[in-house]
Amino acid sequence: MAVFLQQTFNGLSVGSAYAVFAVGFTLLFGVLNVLNLAHGAIFMVGAFTGLEFIKLVKLPLPLAFLAGVLIAGIVSVLTHAAVFGPLERRGGTRWMGFIASLAVAKLLVGIAQELFGTEVLRYPSEPWMDASWSIGEVRIQGLQLVVIATALLLMLALAFFLRATQSGRAIRTMAFNPNVARLVGVPVDRMTWITYFIAGCLAGAAGIQLGILYNAVSPFMGETILLKGMTVLILGGLGHVPGAALAGVLLGLTEVYSVAYLSSSLRDAVGFGLVFLILLVRPHGLFGTNTKQRA
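Given the sequence above, the corresponding structure tokens read:
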């Protein structure tokens, strides 16, 4: 029982970061019908930016986290300005954007390799990161608590924004139908920029969270998380933001349980195998419906 409780807590911390990344990824798909394969590279940009603000600018971690999140949001907006926006204006198909975003991802990875090299870098250790408490036989690390709390705050802030603000309601209207949104006076172009910014901020936040949690930052760290994000996108229900958050946590728990009870080499196989089995039963995902878009 102690092992189960310990691994549950470990899985919640990892799954919380997965959820943050996947929610941004899903928001883009649910609102704009865009599958941005550069999202994993933006995750990497956030991790590196936070690290560099700590090492070079000597910012404390909370401010470096904020800086990394904002820079990642700006990079996400630039992907729209440079790729998706021009393609949409020229009548490009979704597949053109799909391939173009993959090219942007490779470009960002290449720039990161040139600037930082290919070796794994690590966030400087701080006393609170090593703090831990024992509840019975379960060891709780301060770092894991911070990751879970940060993820929860981000999810609550996003939910408040989408439900209680005029811009959030406009974005939800766009998710329902962009043409209807235009007819009722929604500034679609401005809301598109905001959606890209929010999605990028969430990717950057997840990059810093996992960069600290795993104590590893590299130019290639976005490739694996992108695959997990796509998995969660499908598992939660295409475009279903709350479903993506819950599915991210579920994927984290599944991975940790597989390591604890089976083998670390089966970690990804078990996680993706579970997704396959669930989709056989529920083709629209755990929380999806026949509705094409949701937010």
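Confidence is low (pLDDT under 50) at residues 291-295. Try to locate this feature in the token string yourself.
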